[in-house]
Amino acid sequence: MFMAIPSVCNENENLPAFLREWRKYKLTIPTYGAIFISQDNSHVLIVQRYSGNWSFPRGKMESGENPKECAVREVFEEVGLDISNLIKSDEYNESKKEEKYSTLGIINVA
Question: Which residues constitute the domain of residue 80?
Answer without folding.
Answer: 30-109
